[in-house]
Amino acid sequence: MPERELYDEYPSGIRWLRILLAGFLAEVLVILLALPLASLFGKNTLTYSAPAASLLTCFLFAIWVGRPLHSRFVLHGILVGVVATLIYVALTRGAPEPPAYLVAHALKLLGGAAGGLVAARRQETAQPLNTPAGETGRP
């Protein structure tokens, strides 16, 4: 399938379904990682485990979202973090949060952006050089 046809399916060029799924799964994974730690080692561990898990999960899912992309990697990654944050805010009904959780939300955005950068770098290295046989592609 030619590259242009892929983007005809997405008029905005943004893969919303993948972003929504990744944001949802990232937030579910944060809960699955942080809650067992809190039950084993005490509720105070959430101050450290939730921000770390937020960064890690959004980073990993942003890489996943970026795999089929050809551009806008960082935007897609940030949107994964935004969706994960909005899901958490919806789950807590917008209740006031401790500062560590506000940091966790910022880390979701940062993790998503970093994952987008990694996806872009992977895409660059995966692109074959369009050079005749025997040439290196460098001046």
What is this structure's SSE topology?
Layout: H1 3-8, H2 16-41, H3 46-66, H4 73-91, H5 99-126
Helix pairs in contact: 2-3, 2-4, 3-4, 3-5, 4-5
Describe the structure.
The protein is mainly α and 139 residues long. It has helices spanning 3-8, 16-41, 46-66, 73-91, 99-126.
Task: Give short descriptive properties of this protein.
single chain; 139 residues; mainly alpha; 5 helices; 72% helix; disordered N terminus
Order of helices and strands: HHHHH
| Major sheet description | none
**Assembly annotation:** single chain
The residue-averaged pLDDT reads: 86
Indicate the proportion of strand residues.
Answer: under 5%
What structural class results from the helix and strand content? Answer: mainly alpha
